[in-house]
Amino acid sequence: MSETAVDVADAAVFDDAALVEERMLELLSQRTQRSRAFAPAYAQLWQAVERMAAGGKKVRPRMLMRAYHALGGTDTRTAVDAACAVELLHLALVIHDDVIDKDLLRRGELNISGQFAVEVMVRGATRHEASAWGEASSLLAGDLLLSLAQSLLARLDLPQQRRLAVLDLFDETLFESAAGEHHDVWLSMHLEASSPTDVLAMLDQKTAAYSFRAPLVLAAILAGSEPSIIAELTTIARQIGVIYQLRDDILGLFGDERATGKSTLSDLREGKETLLIAYARSDPSWQGVEALFGDRELSIMEAPELRRVIEQSGGLAFVESVIADRCRHVHDLIGSAALPPAVKDQLTELTTACSARDS
Amino acid sequence: MSETAVDVADAAVFDDAALVEERMLELLSQRTQRSRAFAPAYAQLWQAVERMAAGGKKVRPRMLMRAYHALGGTDTRTAVDAACAVELLHLALVIHDDVIDKDLLRRGELNISGQFAVEVMVRGATRHEASAWGEASSLLAGDLLLSLAQSLLARLDLPQQRRLAVLDLFDETLFESAAGEHHDVWLSMHLEASSPTDVLAMLDQKTAAYSFRAPLVLAAILAGSEPSIIAELTTIARQIGVIYQLRDDILGLFGDERATGKSTLSDLREGKETLLIAYARSDPSWQGVEALFGDRELSIMEAPELRRVIEQSGGLAFVESVIADRCRHVHDLIGSAALPPAVKDQLTELTTACSARDS
Q1: Candidate from A120, A167, A174 with C-beta closest to B154
Q2: Adjacent-strand bridge partners of A184
Q3: Complex ipTM, two decimals?
Q4: pLDDT of A8
Q5: Of A78, A142, A251, B226, which residue is most buried, by most CB within 10 angstroms?
Q6: How many CB pairs under 8 A join A and B?
């Protein structure tokens, strides 16, 4: 790509991001406005959603917009709505994931459950009531955003066949994400031994389907790409998604909290079954720390011992090697794919960004 | 209506109910089938949803189908899909309502949370894990059904304007139900004094919008009814919905558990803010029992005293008089509405059934 082409592409991506921000704000503030006719707390809920939406990096919408243009799409307005849908789906899943994990914080700040719980505690609610109120608020916010995402897609002005393809993709995406989330909770109970294959399948379902496949394949459907292009994008997107999640699991235990915004204790306390853990379990040294894993009271003094065993078992090196292998594999897939050069550039950059990131 | 016409109408309603059952089963069993490619527990989740769906009385789908025919609609297949969507939305909201209330039973049997929690307790999960697993399963089941309901509506083969009207109705319905549910949880914390007006508005939002307005107005949109018909149906449906809920609140405290399938303790333990309670609060005798209300440990020996105060405060008689007033008002509305006679018959029967039912 020439330098001018890069500049143009960057400028387009910059403009697109602004358009997505603007449209998200419009969609959500309309709803905040409507909610004022109901109870004050309902308006607060929509305001909390607006704040959450304003804070995000919009990684998925940017991915969609860039792929859409690279695939020759020209109807920016339709693509912006689809990009908003992808972001709203992400917010809905994150909110419901926090309900499932009973988290009150997200990236070091009170999430919706936390904000609502704190507010009523101050007003005299019991701890039990406050926590139920926080959870109810998050559960409803997630429902509303999930439905808003789907509604946006259902309203796209598209020929019938393309519209059905978009709806199919949304259905499949939610079906898989829910399967992955369900399996993640299952694995964290450790009722049966889990294999690295189980863990990788779960990551693929829980994250890759909605965070990578959905934005890229939506872009292709909207741009009117051939089925062969969609098939190639599907395969590559899922592979990148798993790389992203493997890096995420490493950062969750060994990352710099200031950079990631995520406590390196929470995955250990939760007993989150990652590939690191699935590997470390097979080492004799695991027995000595097994009781610490999944201990909700795990202290900052005990965690380093657990991390040391995971590292010395070879678990960390193993996952790094899996990431490196998968990166090579993805680069091969991209190399041999019949995709437009601009799309290949995007996928190559995305792979590097996902595998090498430190936040 | 002549006797023959009644027979024909009954036969049509009977056939419609069978078609709805069949289509629901088809939709859900397809998904159970697909879920088998994922974890066994995910397939169990879909099976639990199938059982739940098979057990219902399908009140809302029947309402929609009957109104659709009465309004002159002839595309039974489209109406059946819309009827399934209404039922799926109901199931989703019921499941999420149980998550919010932390209920493990529904109509005396283990609900999805209960079934999933019990199963893993037997396999050695801790109580904390089992309850989190049950809740996660219900939360995800609700998400999946909510989205399936919306997906069915989005796929209806309709002219653009009618399709958008259907999507608008779904959006508004969920927006209001969520507002009502949120306000219901808020009122049950009793952080501020609530008025009968608050309680009635909450009932209208939480139940009337999705259980009565949505099926009747969907029928009218699909049948291509005039906006004036839709406006009249909207008003009448909401009024009937509130009557239904007022009767429900009475049955929740004073009903026959064997007939209703619902414990007459649960609303009291939950501290559910109904019109009965809003009225009883204004009576001096309330102070003597206030501490019992919302007590999660309320015993079967203490409840009668609470019920006695609600009755002797005049609360029960007040709510009965509100129901009677509202029934008269609805009958007047139906009488003066410009609706087809068959629709008026349906609405009249519905009003009577909602106000006088004992289960």
Answers
A1: A167
A2: none
A3: 0.94
A4: 47
A5: A142
A6: 146
Cβ <8 Å between B175 and A31: yes
Residue in the structure block whose two tokens are 């939480």: B206
> Residue B214 gets which letter from DSSP?
H
Mark out the alpha helices in chain B (DSSP H runs).
Answer: 3-35, 40-55, 59-70, 76-101, 112-122, 127-154, 160-189, 196-203, 214-222, 227-254, 257-260, 266-270, 275-280, 303-312, 315-336, 341-356
Place of tokens 């399934």: B84
Place of tokens 């008003």: B235
**Which residues of A are less than 8 Å from B183 in CB distance?**
38-39, 41-42
Question: What confidence tens digit (pLDDT) does each residue in B307-324 have?
Answer: 999 999 999 999 999 999
A245-254 pLDDT, tens digit each:
999 999 999 9
Instruction: Report the gap between the CA of A193 and the closest CA in chain B (Å).
Output: 13
Distance from CA of B11 to the nearest CA of A (A): 35
For the entire predicted model, the pTM comes to: 0.94
Task: Considering only the beta carbons, identify the residue of B124, B176, B178 that sits closest to A191.
Answer: B124
**Among partner residues A45, A100, A135, which is closest to B136 by beta-carbon distance?**
A100
pLDDT number for residue B10: 55
Among B156, B164, B136, residue whose Cα is nearest residue B86: B156
pLDDT at B12: 62
Q: Write the single-letter amino acid at B272.
A: K
**Spatial distance between the Cα atoms of A256 and A237, rounded to a whole number of angstroms:** 27
Distance (Å) of CA A197 to CA A183, A194, A202, A203, A273: 13, 8, 9, 10, 12
Q: In A265-285, which positions are buried (b, 16+ CB within 10 angstroms) versus exposed (e)?
A: bebbbbbbbbbbbbbbbeeee
Whole-angstrom distance, CA of residue A321 vs CA of residue A300: 28
For residue A109, the cross-strand partners are A106
Bigger pLDDT: A2 vs B238: B238
- Phi (first) and psi of residue A255, to 5 degrees: -80, 175
B34 → closest Cβ in A129, A175, A182:
A175
Specify the pairing of strand B105-106 against strand A109-110. Answer: unpaired
Chain B contact for A111 (CB, 8 A cutoff): no
* One-letter amino acid of A170: F
User: B190-245: per-residue pLDDT in tens?
Assistant: 898 888 888 999 989 999 999 999 999 999 999 999 999 999 999 999 999 999 99
Q: Which of chain B's residues have a Cβ under 8 Å away from the Cβ of A183?
A: 38-39, 41-42
Bigger pLDDT: A6 or A95? A95
Answer yes or no: do B182 and A31 touch at CB < 8 A. Answer: no
